[in-house]
Amino acid sequence: xxxxxxxxxxxxxxxxxxxxxxxFDAETHHVNPTCGDEVTLRVxxxxxxxxxxxxxxxxxxxxxSISVASASILAEEVTGGTVAHARETVEAMRSMLTSKGExxxxxxxxxxxxxxxxxxxxxxxxKCALLSWMAFTDALHQAEGAQQ
Length: 148
Known about the structure:
The chain is of the alpha+beta class. It is 47% helix and 17% strand. It is globular and about 40 Å long.
């Protein structure tokens, strides 16, 4: 088993920051209808604009190892950082996962997310890997709207 497979399994078996917590500013629920994966995600942000801080991401994820591991990686990589950094990380993951294998990912930007680079070669699995990232994007947008 290679290192990337081990990272995915580790995040699947011991997901980082799993479980829904309070306080939170927004909650979203996303479903992948092609396979049944689901995630409910909460985000807590302090401050406003790009310098606001993602204080907490909590989630309940049900689905395949790729979907659960991806939610764990998301929570690990963006919690504690700025909203600007979170947006850059989301875009880097989206770019890598939709590249059909041409973008290997930048470990400096997405950390353990590089373990999911191989998913880009399997279009049916890309939605599994992106599910929590899209839920986070929606929750972040809702949280920002609530602060205005």
